[in-house]
Write a structure and sequence with these properties.
5-stranded parallel beta sheet, Methyltransferase, Methionine Synthase (B12-binding Domains), Chain A, domain 1, Rossmann fold, 10 helices, two-stranded antiparallel sheet, 47% helix
């Protein structure tokens, strides 16, 4: 699980290993080559068989062909895997004309054995990433991406499993709580909602703060006494604004909760390192929980 939407498992090729026919040698390729050789071919005076090496060019061609074949097989395995097919269907449903297609597909997948949380944690983030990629490559309009994202968000609320019955408690005997903070881009809340669902299923109490005013944010932190604050930031977030937000969190209560910075700002850039005051920079949920010592005891 990740703080950003980055979780795409690659499954083994569907169908398993090929069936071996009865009586067919497992190494029949080698057997055929042996059978084609005459008893006296290439014999030396000592009676040993002399093997002529392949030319360098032929050997290189064979290696290249084998490598390309393996790449093609792996690509086909990913393309033909249930995950890839289901993600493709969900993408088509999200950007299609039927507003109810996403819900209908999700219900069908769940009926066929796909866990609802798997759809929430794997399929929905994968479709959202593809929409973002299409938008960046000018292959999708703003309208289609907005509509598709809103449908995914609705689906997340519709099928997302509720809070776990196994609540987690801190050392003070209180329910372990996490504040998820999105300081801007309030229209792009899908990723942080996926994260909230993951935390709730783990038994944590979660509060979402999206685009909250500074005064309200400080009051929220003072009143709730969170065990950790996860800040999700994008590449477009202003560094000075982020630093000021972290400063407000730290000064709102004593002792202050650990502040974790995640989101797209962490990926492929050193920009996140310039946000002063954060305790940890990561997009890995398990790493964030471990740093904050939030593996409390379920009751």
């Amino acid at each position: 699980m990740t703080l950003r939407m980055l979780h795409r498992p690659i499954l083994a090729p569907a169908g398993g290993t090929p069936t071996v026919r009865e009586g067919m040698p497992i190494m029949n390729g080698m057997s055929d080559r042996k059978a084609a050789r005459t008893p006296d071919a290439g014999k030396t005076d000592a009676g040993k068989t002399e093997t002529k090496p392949e030319s360098q060019g032929a050997a290189y061609s064979k290696v290249a062909a084998d490598a390309l074949g393996q790449v093609a097989m792996r690509a086909k395995a990913v393309r033909d895997s249930p995950d890839a097919r289901n993600i493709e269907m969900l993408f088509d449903a999200a950007v299609g004309d039927d507003p109810l297609a996403c819900s209908a597909l999700a219900k069908r997948l769940v009926a066929n054995g796909t866990p609802a949380e798997y759809i929430c944690d794997v399929y929905i983030p994968a479709v959202a990433r593809r929409m973002g990629d299409d938008w960046c490559e000018d292959e999708a309009s703003f309208t289609s991406v907005t509509i598709g994202t809103s449908r995914l968000q609705f689906l997340l609320r519709e099928i997302g499993p509720g809070k776990s019955d196994d609540r987690r408690w801190n050392s003070n005997g209180q329910e372990t709580s996490v504040l998820l903070l999105l300081s801007r881009d309030a229209d792009h809340t899908l990723g942080i909602m996926v994260l909230a669902g993951q935390l709730r299923r783990l038994g944590y109490s979660v509060k979402l703060s999206i685009g909250e005013e500074a005064v309200d944010l400080v009051n929220t932190i003072k009143d709730a006494q969170f065990d950790a604050v996860f800040v999700s930031a994008s590449m477009e977030d202003d560094l000075a604004d982020l630093t000021e937000v972290v400063k407000m969190i730290k000064s709102a209560c004593a002792p202050p909760p650990p502040v974790i910075l995640g989101g797209y700002i962490v990926e492929g850039t050193q920009k996140a390192l310039k946000v002063s005051g954060v305790d940890k920079i990561t997009n890995k949920l398990e790493e964030a929980l471990s740093f904050c010592k939030l593996h409390g005891h379920p009751k």
